[in-house]
Model the fold of this input.
Amino acid sequence: MKEMVIGTLIIIMGLKLIYFLFFKLTWDSTAFFLMLVFGFLLLIIYLASRPDKEYLAMITASEYARIYPKNKTNYGYSCHWCGSRSIRNWGLNSPDDEKRVFICNHCGKKLYRNDCLN
Done:
């Protein structure tokens, strides 16, 4: 939903910019300001939409279970670095984010991510 609103705003700003540049045939301060806003919005969309490389580079929970089968416990997984069973479940960008990162509470190592790719 957020991406659709931002995309709509960018289209509106782009149309206004085209109107000022081609129909008024002038390069006044308003058109320059709109060009800056349009470029800034494009930059924000690019930075917000690119996948998080560190998150995608982490192994998934199913891969963690396959690689470290001895770390499977009755209640989940334990850390393969220190053996701790205390694992934090953090959202990547916010507490309610679907993309989750699992981190050892004892040694602080990032262990795996959930299997969600959205």
